[in-house]
Amino acid sequence: MIPYANDFHALFCEAVYCGINTPSVGNVIAIYTYAGKGLFGVSPTIGMNKMEVPVFAPTREFYAPKYEQLKAEDWQKPDLRTLIHWQPTIVTDTLGKASASFYNGDITGNMKIIVEAITANGKIGYKEIFYDVKKKQ
What we know:
- The chain has one helix spanning 8-15; strands at 109-118, 124-133.
- By secondary structure, the protein is mainly beta.
- A two-stranded antiparallel sheet has the order 1-2.
- It is extended.
């Protein structure tokens, strides 16, 4: 990271967007390729870390409560998890459709579902879906 980078405004405009509310100061994370290309006007810093970013993260197990056989004491402790469902692998049908189901936690309000996808040939997809959770009467 380059804290309070020189010429931040121009770097921001090249990478994001230049408009009326474009910030004039800020930090920059510069990424250089093996060819040595990076944002214009920025030289690699001496001692810069060289690392690789894995394309895919390994699949991990995500904790999800079992609701099949609830006991009376299970209703006493609220489920206040902010991340209630994680499904790292989902396969679509021939029409490109898929579905998933999950239990909501006990937090009420506006919830957001984020779907990120990548196809076998490298196409990416991203969708945000919002829904309301209300307290049961």
